[in-house]
Amino acid sequence: MKILIIEDEKELSESIAAYLKGQNYICEIAADFNKAIEKTELYDYDCILLDITLPGGSGLEILKELKANNKLDGVLIISAKNSLDDKVTGLTLGADDYLAKPFHLSELSARVAAIIRRKNFDGSDILNFQNISIDTRAKTVLVNDKPLELTKKEYELLLYFISNKKKVISKNAIAEHLWGDDMQGNNDFIYTHIKNLRKKLMEAGDADYIKSVYGMGYKFSV
Amino acid sequence: MKLLAKYNRVNVVATIIVLLLSAVIYYFFIEKTLVYQLDKNLVVEEKEIKDYIIENNALPEPSYSKDEQEVYTSVTDKNVKRSFSSVELYNKDHDENIDYRQLEFPVTVNGKFYKADVRKSQEETEDVVQLILKITLTIVLLLLAILFIINRFVLSKLWKPFNSTLEQIKQFNVSGKDNIHFEPSNINEFTELNAAVNVMTKKAIGDYNEIKSFTENASHEIQTPLAIIRSKLELLSQSENLKEEQMNAIQSISETTSRLSKLNQSLILLTKIDNRQFKETEDVNLSVLLHRHLNNYEELLNAKGIVTTKNIAEPVFVTMNETLAETLIVNLLTNAIKHNVEKGSITITLNEHALSISNTGKALNENPAIYFERFKKESASNDSMGLGLSIVKKICDTYHFTISYTHQNMMHTVTVNF
Fold first, then answer.
1. Molecular function (GO) terms listed (chain A) (predicted)?
2. By the CB < 8 Å criterion, does B281 face chain A?
3. What is the mean pLDDT of residues B109-120?
4. Is A16 on the interface with B (CB under 8 A)?
């Protein structure tokens, strides 16, 4: 999976690249408008992370260019301008999703995974982790080939964990993912959901993949 | 009071005073002139009588008409003084009192002393006074009529450019795209006013756009470093072999970053609402919005054992900006959830006139009004920014909704009346 990060803040693009590399993505970085145009014209990417405010031009222009050239790259706008206009314009121009800064890297990774799944580049809607198998189209989960009944939030939580496997995810990031950023700060709310998900997975005969990381959050790993 | 009415009132009062004053002055001068004329006539009469006596050595026939009278009275005292006076005498023929101007003088006929009284009626003077009064009244009435006509037809036309400018100013929206168009006027004051308003509105629009872009830029400038901090922290938290205190520190920095980011977003939102940047309105179906968000929190509510009671009429449409409607509902709902207690309850009532959300919760220590102000929060124990209710209040103010808070039987209720 190839990802292009169009972002002028070097520190941020490097963090994103470092995180996504851990998820087995190949990341390239374009730090300005011209570089971005050059790369998008030469190569195809599974997903492009696109900042709107760039030296040399607007990210929205790059998006227009992509669409004009019938490029199939998935586009996730990452913008600090959390303004409705940009969001609406971006999505109308054909971006797949919009994420306002500052975002959690785990959220970004989940969104990227969702875009790539939707674009169906690897020809599969099935997500596998050990003996867990998620059909993201039908939104069903199989554990050891047996269906597992999950509530909506538990399903979202599992998907979020698998999109960020082997990574420590903060409670804040989980709360924000499940209920939006207005529920931030009440991290005890997520505890019940995690407890239930863990219980269901273990009852289905799986190992306990959800590891509690002291003080920081949770990690989904073998 | 309208400027015109005030101006007219002053004008009419002043004119009437001047007219009355001039009527009085007229009266005195004309009376004086007429009396002087009468006196001259009386002197002529006197001379005629005296001549007659010298010629005929007898008194002339006394006359007693309404207009003119000559009366002779025999007197013993020869010291009758010659004098003019005004008298009022009863006239038998006309059965009325009539004012006369009279000249009294002594005459001697055959050694006998007489007092002669020559009188002339002053009725003419009275006629003149009446005439003056009538003319004055007519002028006053005429003046009022003219003022009325001027007000009705001329002045309203004259003030039309002013009223049009006023209307434009009332309609003026600093975030609006279209500029103000003034009706051309050849009256200096109005042209000047229009020019001044033009300069002012241009400046207001300029300032507004500057603030708008500043808000956007401030958001950008602050959110980007926050994004870097957050990403570095998340990378750092992936490191193996972190010590307990390091993990605590990472967690603490991460939460503070979230707070700072949320605070920044809330302030930007408040500023944007203040600047009327959410001006697109539509008929928002609040029932659908409420259901959608309640659905999002359903599992959370179940997990906390919070019972929800919904009295949601549908559909309920409110004309407002959709983003703000969503912000309003999310803020109220999350407040009711965050400040709830284990196994508590939430009651949501929505009808055409009001949205009311009640929740169980601990009693508040302070006056509820302050929660609608910025940066007020009940306790330091939770991480809510204390901006949620100010945002709600600001949204309500924008659409002239009234918002109220009550606390009864351990239930906190926030009601928004549309």
1. phosphorelay response regulator activity; transcription cis-regulatory region binding
2. no
3. 87
4. yes
